[in-house]
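Weekly sync, protein design subgroup
Attendees: M.S., D.O., the rotation student, P.L. (late)

Item 1: inverse folding check
M.S. brought a backbone from last month's batch and wanted to see whether the design step gives back something sensible before we order anything. D.O. pointed out we never logged the input encoding, so this time it goes straight into the notes. Structure tokens as presented (212 positions):
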């Protein structure tokens, strides 16, 4: 019985790693597509989202099975609870990756704002850092992710100011609004990555406060 329990926990770790790989690869592809009009990225993002949704279902089923049929010790219980929350943030990141791809495909001119480029770099760091920290139980890495979120928020604030001025002087407002939406999706991705980082500390210490 104990061996089967440990195998199930190992399977859960493996599923998290596979879902993480889908998210990281999907974001990198969509971020790269912002530099050139790439309609294929929309289809790829949709396929990625479907695969992450499938992994989400598998993970939630396994978590429920563990809670119903096993008696997890405190540390394992924290891990299972954290997984059930982390995969929700991962799924939301997948949604926003799809949204960025779909919005970029509508643009007549792809965004060249330095804020969006900077936010893409930060979000790439945050997604990878949050997932690696969570899987590796690396609280210091989680703190670095949280610190980067302030830079994403500041870049989005700057982008909003810039676009509010631009919309006053352009007849074509569609791309201005598309740029704003892409920035908003990136800002949300940063928030979800921060949430994942906070769950790292919960698994290790029982509190989500990564500043401790």
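Designed sequence read out in the meeting:
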């Amino acid at each position: 019985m104990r061996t089967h329990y440990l195998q199930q926990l190992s399977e859960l770790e493996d599923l998290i790693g596979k879902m993480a790989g889908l998210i990281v690869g999907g974001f990198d592809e969509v971020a790269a597509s912002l530099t050139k009009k790439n309609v294929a990225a929309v289809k790829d993002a949709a396929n990625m989202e479907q695969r992450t949704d499938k992994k989400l279902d598998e993970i939630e089923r396994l978590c429920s099975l563990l809670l119903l049929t096993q008696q997890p010790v405190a540390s394992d219980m924290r891990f299972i609870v954290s997984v059930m929350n982390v995969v929700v943030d991962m799924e939301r990141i997948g949604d926003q990756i799809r949204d960025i791809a779909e919005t970029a495909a509508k643009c007549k001119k792809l965004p060249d704002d330095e804020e969006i480029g900077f936010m893409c770099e930060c979000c790439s760091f945050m997604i990878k850092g949050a997932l690696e920290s969570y899987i590796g139980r690396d609280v210091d890495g989680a703190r670095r992710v949280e610190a980067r979120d302030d830079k994403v928020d500041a870049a989005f604030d700057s982008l909003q100011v810039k676009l509010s001025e631009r919309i006053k002087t352009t007849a074509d407002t569609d791309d201005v609004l598309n740029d704003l939406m892409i920035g908003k999706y990136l800002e949300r991705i940063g928030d979800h990555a921060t949430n994942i980082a906070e769950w790292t500390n919960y698994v290790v210490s029982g509190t989500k406060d990564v500043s401790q």
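Discussion: The CA atoms of residues 76 and 184 lie 35 Å apart. The chain is about 85% helix and 0% strand.
Action: P.L. to compare against the previous round before Friday.
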